């Protein structure tokens, strides 16, 4: 039921939990495990074409290694030192590429094996926080863009008005680049303004303008382009059967739980528990607040306030990316050392 990884206290806690208390957990895991999936053959065929051509597109790793630099015929120590650094960097790059190639091959091997199946299922279990994850390690719907792009629901549903609207929003979310921060109407407008690019991506994904490759999640974007094209070209888009999962991402789930439990309205707004015109971003908000504090500290006299010198030195280093990891893990008990690292 729960991944304990040798943590005896966690394992004992699960064993001591009353059966009736665990019933809702079992039901939730059974619901996730009973969802039927299948391989999106059209997207998989595009992935195979890119991969057989050497990768390098849609965030796929290059299948060839970086050429190792030849040792210079010299006794100049500076040149030899530079060569050693270049050689070390090339070997590191090749090692990373090898790992990434192995990862892609494992995922594609599973997809190719399962592509002709009517459907298959993913058993799930929990981590120590209560988050549910598929037990299959390679190809699953919580994996990379490649995994999510080649997977779809085996049992489709008619889109309806709501489904067609959400498919357009989903496409804008996948394209990202700031588009995902627009209002819902803004995201729908983005999709409708790029219908020609969407149709071209669906009809000629590698021979056309390749608009889908500009997306932050290209393979998922391609899958939605194909599905949306089929829907909009059908006589009745709202009755067309769609198999596309529209992913919903939480905004710092840990803080969402705290805001909900504490009925914290300000916190709820920051983590999108309260409807707003545009998506809120708690990480940007916290980064902005930290910068304000540091600016105030930087104005103080370093001779009397030790924080002043540090604030002046680090002021330009604080951004959303820096604070995200610490804020995200603070609700799970991250230590000072863990946050620092």
From TrEMBL:
GO molecular function list: DNA binding; DNA-directed RNA polymerase activity
GO cellular component, one term: DNA-directed RNA polymerase complex
Keywords assigned by UniProt, alphabetized: DNA-directed RNA polymerase, Nucleotidyltransferase, Transcription, Transferase, Transit peptide
Enzymatic reactions: RNA(n) + a ribonucleoside 5'-triphosphate = RNA(n+1) + diphosphate
SUPFAM superfamilies assigned to the protein according to its UniProt record, in alphabetical order: DNA/RNA polymerases
Domain DNA-directed RNA polymerase C-terminal positions: 157-341
EC identifiers of the protein: 2.7.7.6
Entry's Gene Ontology BP terms: DNA-templated transcription
Functional note: DNA-dependent RNA polymerase catalyzes the transcription of DNA into RNA using the four ribonucleoside triphosphates as substrates.
Family: Belongs to the phage and mitochondrial RNA polymerase family.
Protein name: DNA-directed RNA polymerase
Organism of this sequence: Oryza sativa subsp. japonica
């Amino acid at each position: 039921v729960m991944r304990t990884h040798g943590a005896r206290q966690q394992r004992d806690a699960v064993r001591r939990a009353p059966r009736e208390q665990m019933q809702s957990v079992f039901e939730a895991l059974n619901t996730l495990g009973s969802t039927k999936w299948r391989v999106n053959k059209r997207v998989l065929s595009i992935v195979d074409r890119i991969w057989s051509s050497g990768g390098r597109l849609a965030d796929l790793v290059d299948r060839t290694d970086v050429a190792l630099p030849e040792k210079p015929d010299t006794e100049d120590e500076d040149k030899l030192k530079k060569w050693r650094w270049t050689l070390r960097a090339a070997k590191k790059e090749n090692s990373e590429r090898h790992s990434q190639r192995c990862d892609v091959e494992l995922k594609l091997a599973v997809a190719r094996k399962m592509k002709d199946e009517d459907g298959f299922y993913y058993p799930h279990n929990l981590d120590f926080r209560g988050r549910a994850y598929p037990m299959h390690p390679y190809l699953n719907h919580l994996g990379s863009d490649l995994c999510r792009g080649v997977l779809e629901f085996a049992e489709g549903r008619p889109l309806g008005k709501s489904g067609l609207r959400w498919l357009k929003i989903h496409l804008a979310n996948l394209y990202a680049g700031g588009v995902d921060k627009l209002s819902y109407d803004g995201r729908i407008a983005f999709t409708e303004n790029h219908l020609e690019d969407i149709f071209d991506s669906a009809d000629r994904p590698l021979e056309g303008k390749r608009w889908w490759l500009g997306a932050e999640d290209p393979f998922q974007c391609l899958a939605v382009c194909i599905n949306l094209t089929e829907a909009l070209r059908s006589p009745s888009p709202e009755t067309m059967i769609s198999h596309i999962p529209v992913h919903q991402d939480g905004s710092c789930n840990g803080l969402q739980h705290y805001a909900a439990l504490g009925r914290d309205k300000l916190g709820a707004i920051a983590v999108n528990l309260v409807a707003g015109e545009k998506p809120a971003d708690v990480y940007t908000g916290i980064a902005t607040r930290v910068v304000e504090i540091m600016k105030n500290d930087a104005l103080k006299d370093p001779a009397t306030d030790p924080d002043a010198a540090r604030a002046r030195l680090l002021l330009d280093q604080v951004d959303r990316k820096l604070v995200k990891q610490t804020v995200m893990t603070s609700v799970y008990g991250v230590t000072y050392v863990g946050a620092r690292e």
